[in-house]
Design goal:
With 335 residues, the chain is of the alpha+beta class. It is built from eleven helices and ten strands. Strands 1, 4, 5, 6, 7, 8 and 9 form a seven-stranded antiparallel beta sheet that branches. The termini are far apart.
Length: 335
Amino acid sequence: MKRTILPILHPPLHGHLYNAFPLSICPLHKNFCNWFYPNFSALKVLNHDHNLDIVFDTGNIIDCPRENPILDVTKINNKDILNVDFINTMKYYLDQSKYIYIFLDEYYVKNRVSYQQEHFLHETLIYGYDDQFEEFLVCGFNSSMIYGKQRLPYSCIHEGFVHNDYVGGWAGYTYLITINSKLEISFDKQKLVNYLEKSLSLTSENYTLNGLEKNVVAYGVFIYEYLESVFFNEYHKMKDPSVIRNSHVLWEYHNCMVNRIKFLHDSGYLNHGSEVLLGKQLLLEENAKKLRNIILKSFIKNDEPEIKNLIYLLQSIRSIEENNILDLLSQLKIG
């Protein structure tokens, strides 16, 4: 019996799987922090018909190789994989130290919310296999919506893949990922400065000029004021289940900023005032966590969220974050 298990880490971000999966692999690189902290520095809000989506401006780094030199990605049309022995092909890729980013119909995948309930096309990252138990080792959200590692039967992955009838586009391909372990990556301070400056100044009339999607409605520090207006004018979008993920991504952003400030201090980019900066950012993270927990609690109990508290937290975050980014920029330009 044979098995191959590639190294995998818990990602610093997992609100969106297209971030979580590559960020489960990238930290294995010795220069990961040099690449990660200039990126993932700004948020934007996408407005859909019935809900909102809060995402990092970095975008989908699997599909943008120039933005993620740590990883090599090979894109294979799913139709080509259907013509070969699927399970042995997946095992072959893993034996070649290739992680597999794949789309499955989770109706056929055990330990998923949609299993035997509804057809739902979703991502999975395969990082190993074990012939003894005839299982693939994967990452993703389980039936309790908790992100982590799981073992799934070969048959589940096969059936989920076979029933992915998406043609073309992002989900019509499988992505093989390897890490460029020998690549040297320097910290790009100017890229971080550019992101932070955009967060403070980029307004809606300039979104198109800066290459943002047509449905971007808020960016950077303007997100919180926009969300306040949604509570009053489009409340149905705050009642959509997507608000759970959105509030989690807001918290992830502030948690990431705490670690970013620590990294910048340890790397000598910030002066003695970094302690004050960090203290304010810890408060932002705490408020973002409170906001997320209020929203999560209301969905679990099927209650109306505490709107007054949510508005207060949004206003509190907005009032502190702008000054904190200004202080961070000031120190970066000196250091």
